[in-house]
Specification:
heterodimer, A: 125 residues, B: 952 residues, 9-stranded mixed beta sheet
Chain lengths: 125, 952
């Protein structure tokens, strides 16, 4: 990953909240598009989008590929972990993913700063 | 070269161009500001443009004047702190190139030796930390240019009418709008820097759009920024607002006339820049400006209403400026139509004729789709023969597909290539090939897909994996990744079952695989035609049918994504120049994050599909062995994951039996793919023909790849200078070596597995992306080759052959893979009526597994017994089946016979053709059995006639 910001990128409100919106949508009755669309979009793109947002130099194509791969992988791992520990529920899994996405978004600026420190280490003074 | 990036920041040269002695004082201040940087410039190049008197004065006096200026500044008039430090050699050169700013800058470019070139105007002063802010950003190899904020330094008081959002008129950037380092599309001309190698590759500044002494300034910067980013794939330009330059605004620049003409010129120069780069569409105005005008206007109106007339005049000026820009843009567009474009750009004539021709594929695409949709209305699936779906497709289907093929081949070989259109063709091909069965059937294709749906729905219902030892689907227990993902997706989205979307598995799987495949191909060629052709060949050659709703289809996507990430971010890099683009430093948070992502992907692959994990281990090891992947830890991590999961999680399932594990790895979902390469022992004629075609087709695709590879190796030296022909051909081989290794990396499976057709088809599938690349090089071996009119013709011819092979191979087993609604209804009837603990007996497992509570039943397949048992059953069906279904074993037992089971029996030669009908008749004649349920494609027989089922 090669983010290049010296001043950190602020978190995106949309991404920070996306998981919680999806979680709220699960309260709606099944079979409605109002529920299926935000939940599916979040599971397929949400966590990955938070990751690729800080990854400069990607074109749209690469952003989508990596966002889908990371999001579905995160969903699979969280769901799997809950299944194996016998505590699976879709609400719980969604809450964990929403928390992960929010943490990635809010913790992102810290990552940018660390990244910058790493970059400037080699500059001759 | 394998050099550690991030060791030190590159050296920086500063180029200052001046063209009149009137600006002597300003020039001295500009040079002095560079001599007072916190990080010294390696070189300071003062280029005197076409002004011998200034050249003479500068050579005589500049050094002394700069020293005096620095002494005067002392405490610092413009900036708080000036740190005195050694500065690089000051060089004064006359402009050797064409007169004008572009020529002067190109002179500086030719003279400079440093890796980074920063450009400062002679009427500007750089902040002391200017270089310190700009240069570190170049540590990131994808950065090709960095610019900063231009702060206006008004010689006279800023006019009241001057709109705030038009500061760019006087050379200032829209700085305040961007507060942090951002990736931008253009850099401000008064404060920009570039990698020297990129500038050279992009051809330097273009005089035609640059400003001359007499004329007004034009956006040569915009033009250059577009060319620089286009020259390097995935590169970015950064805007660092803290790298500031103070730019003088003269009295003359504050006049209304200057404002108006500068706006006009800005509009005009946009058309010049967009004409010279007609492959890269430019907006009519700066992106920030498009927002700034309405925003400034509304603010001004509001202020005017509040009784602040000064702001209101600003609104009028902003409107007038926007009007002048639009006028300039229109005039430029009209000129473009009348006069031919200058050299280096595609001529208008060519542009217009190309516009005419691109219209053809543009029309062909919707036409093909419309014909395809209409063709599906006249399909009767009941007439399908043992050659599969192709036997019922009407002529109009083939017409639609032919138009699609012609359109794509035309569009991909056309210059300039229309990316969206070509992508549209690929989507349409996926729709036609993999969407047709979905639309026609209305039921889920492939019995394995039904099984996967059952496992997913079990997890969604119970929140755990079925631990029943007699579970029919227990083989899926140890690799729950894919099922857990879909259980979450199903339940959270509010679907009653994953059956709601599972039918769309093949189109979705083929679509998502294109993403990482394109990323991989882009690493090996800059020729976009070759990339699109690879995707096309991949889609045409992917006949294997492993793309349905399954773990292997999902992990196949992850497999390619992991390879794409490794090939791009774990490649060895040279420290300097373009090759340094795109590296991840060996340590630090960025590397950690990328590795973390890969480890997460590994974890999912390992716990979803063991075969994919093993092939990926081999592939990554091969890449690490030739040092194309700089990390040796990655394949090791994956290997540990795979073996660890096999030993720990899967151990309980296999009870530690290594042989069972190996057998499972060889045939992870045994029933899935029995049809991939049909055994030729006793099958009927149709399936045998399909099997032969499949094998010939696979061989053909590999053959095309080999010819493509040899062809490229032959062509390369011919096009290079004769002396370095051999070197070029070796280089080419070395360049494509990783792809060759990736194509070969699934081959060791032959050793690990058996030689069955199924394993061969898996090997074919995992090699296919890379094989498709080599096959595509047949059409576009080098960027210069494949430009003749013959190329699309050859492409069409090969595509037609591939399409024929694909449709016979992929659609050839549809009598088995298709389940009619009547068959699904029979399974559902059983699920509703059979009490828990019942036995469900069938000839083969090839049935729609529509058993919501599959865990409640036992299943048995009499057609899959050993040969002796099968013979015995055929000789005495009443006795044998009667004893299997006897109440002593199961309280109730149902025999389910369907059309698709009969098709599988016939196709594989497990029993003689017509056996199932004979069995059915024998049972019913005996009087011991009765029909519980019957429809056109299915019959359910019980030992004693039950009153529950009536004949519908």
């Amino acid at each position: 990953m090669t983010p290049t910001r010296t001043s950190p990128m602020p978190p995106s409100i949309l991404l920070t909240l996306s998981g919680w919106v999806a979680l709220a949508a699960t309260r709606l009755p099944g079979g409605s598009a109002v529920r299926a669309v935000p939940v599916t979009l979040f599971l397929l793109l949400g966590p990955g989008a938070a990751v690729v947002r800080r990854w400069l130099g990607l074109d749209l194509w690469e952003k989508v590929v990596i966002a889908v791969a990371v999001s579905t992988a995160a969903a699979a791992l969280v769901s799997e972990a809950l299944v194996l520990t016998g505590s699976w529920s879709s609400t719980r899994a969604l809450a964990v993913l929403a928390a992960l996405t929010t943490a990635t978004e809010l913790g992102g600026p810290l990552f940018d700063k660390a990244k910058h420190r790493d970059r400037v280490k080699g500059i001759p003074k | 070269v394998n050099v550690d990036p991030g060791a030190e920041s590159p050296a920086c040269a500063v180029v200052i161009c001046s063209h009149t002695e009137e600006r002597w004082d300003m020039l001295v201040r500009a040079v002095s500001s560079i001599c007072s940087q916190t990080i010294p410039a390696q070189e300071i190049l003062v280029v005197i443009d076409n002004c011998p008197p200034l050249l003479a004065i500068a050579r005589r006096n500049l050094s002394a004047a700069v020293a005096a200026q620095k002494a005067r500044w002392g405490g610092g008039p413009g900036f708080d702190q000036l740190i005195d430090c050694a500065y690089g050699p000051l060089t004064i050169v006359p402009n050797h190139e064409r007169p004008g700013l572009s020529g002067a800058r190109n002179t500086g470019l030719a003279a400079a030796r440093a890796e980074v070139l920063a450009f400062l105007d002679d009427d500007a002063v750089a902040a002391p930390d200017w270089i310190e802010r700009l240069v570190p950003l170049y540590d990131d190899p994808i950065v090709v240019g960095v610019g900063g904020q231009v702060v206006p330094d008004w010689e006279v008081v800023r006019p009241a009418w001057f709109p705030a959002d038009f500061d760019w008129v006087v050379g200032s950037s829209n700085g305040p709008m961007l507060r942090s380092v951002q990736s931008v599309r253009t850099l401000p001309g008064a404060n920009m820097s570039f990698r020297k190698s990129v500038l050279v590759d992009a051809g330097g500044f273009r005089s035609e759009s640059g400003r001359t002494q007499d004329g007004p300034p034009r956006s040569e910067e915009t033009d250059l920024c577009v060319r620089a980013t286009a020259a390097v794939d995935g590169s970015v330009l950064l805007y660092e607002p803290n790298a500031r330059v103070l730019h003088t605004v003269t009295r003359q620049q504050t006049t209304w006339g200057y404002f108006r003409s500068r706006c006009f010129d800005e509009g005009l120069s946009k058309t010049i820049a967009s004409r010279a780069n007609n492959h890269h569409r430019l907006p009519a105005s700066e992106p920030s400006l498009a927002l700034a005008i309405p925003r400034g206007f509304t603010t001004s109106i509001v202020e005017g209403l509040r009784g602040k007339p000064r702001r209101a005049t600003g609104a009028a000026a902003a409107l007038a400026g926007a009007a002048a820009m639009s006028a300039g843009y229109l005039v430029g567009q009209c000129r473009n139509l009348v006069t031919p474009a200058p050299s280096g750009a595609v001529s208008d004539e060519a542009t217009r004729s190309s516009a005419r021709v691109t219209l053809l594929p543009l029309v062909a695409l919707p036409l093909a789709l419309a014909i395809w949709q209409l063709s599906l209305m006249h399909v009767d699936l009941r007439h399908m023969t043992d050659l599969g779906l192709i036997t019922v497709l009407p002529v109009s289907f083939w017409v639609g597909l032919s138009i699609l093929t012609l359109g794509f081949c035309y569009a991909v070989s056309h210059t300039p290539l229309n990316r969206l259109l070509v992508f549209g063709y690929l989507l349409a091909l996926i729709g036609v090939i993999h969407g047709t069965p979905v639309i026609l059937y209305g039921t889920l294709r492939y019995s394995s897909a039904w099984r996967h749906v059952a496992v997913v729905d079990y997890i969604a219902r119970h929140g755990r994996i079925n631990s029943n030892a007699h579970d029919q689907l227990s083989t899926f227990r140890a690799w729950p990744g894919f099922y857990a993902l879909n259980a979450l997706l199903t339940q959270a989205s509010g679907f009653t079952s994953s059956l709601s979307y599972a039918s769309w598995g093949p189109p979705i799987a083929n679509l998502i695989v294109l993403g990482p495949l394109a990323m991989i191909v882009k690493r090996f060629t800059a020729d976009r035609r070759l990339m699109w052709a690879t995707l096309w060949v991949f889609l045409l050659a992917n006949w294997v049918g492993q793309d349905y709703f399954s773990p292997q289809a999902y992990t196949y996507f992850l497999y390619l994504t992991v390879l794409a990430i490794c090939l791009r971010w774990y490649r060895p890099v040279a420290r300097r120049g373009l090759e340094a683009l795109d590296a991840v430093s060996r340590t630090g948070p960025a590397r950690l994050a990328t590795t973390g992502i890969l480890v997460a992907l590994f974890a999912v692959i390992t716990t979803s599909h063991p075969l994919t994990a093993l092939i990926l281990v081999v592939a990554l090891t091969a890449l690490a062995a030739i040092r194309r992947c700089t990390s040796r830890v990655l394949p090791a991590i994956l290997l540990v994951f795979t073996l660890g999961w096999l030993l720990i999680a899967a151990r309980s399932f296999f009870a530690g039996n290594v042989h069972t594990i190996l057998a499972f790895i060889r045939r992870p979902d045994a029933k899935t793919n029995a049809s991939a390469f049909v055994s030729l022992v006793h099958p009927s004629a149709g399936p045998a023909f399909v099997a032969r075609i499949s094998r010939a087709f696979s061989a053909l695709v590999w053959g095309l790849a080999m010819v493509g590879m040899l062809n490229t190796a032959q062509l390369e030296p011919a096009q290079a200078a004769p002396t370095d022909g051999l070197r070029r051909s070796r280089e080419d081989l070395r360049r494509h070596l990783p792809l060759l290794l990736l194509a070969l990396s699934p081959l060791p499976l032959i050793v690990a597995g058996n030689f069955s057709g199924e394993m061969l088809s898996r090997i074919y599938l995992f090699s296919l992306p890379f094989v498709a690349f080599f096959a595509a090089t047949l059409f576009f071996p080098t960027p210069r080759a494949g430009r003749s009119r013959l190329t699309p013709v050859v492409l069409v011819a090969v595509s037609v052959v591939l399409l024929a092979g694909l449709l016979v191979s992929n659609y050839g087993k549809e009598q088995i893979n298709y389940f009619s609604p009547a068959e699904v209804a029979a399974s559902r009837w059983l699920d509703n009526h059979a009490p828990a603990g019942s036995l469900i007996l069938a000839a083969t497992s090839n049935l729609p597994f529509a058993f919501t509570h599959y865990e409640a039943y036992d299943f048995e397949w009499f057609g899959l017994q050993d040969v002796g048992t099968r013979r015995a059953i055929l000789e005495d069906p009443v006795g044998h089946l009667g004893s299997i279904m006897a109440p002593a074993n199961h309280r109730t037992a149902y025999l389910l016979l369907t059309r698709s089971q009969a098709a599988e029996i016939d196709a594989t030669g497990l029993m003689p053709p017509g056996s199932l009908t004979q069995v059915e008749h024998a049972l019913l004649r005996s009087g011991r059995f009765g029909v519980a349920y019957q429809s056109e494609d299915a019959v359910i027989i019980t030992l004693q006639p039950t009153p529950a089922g009536t004949v519908p």
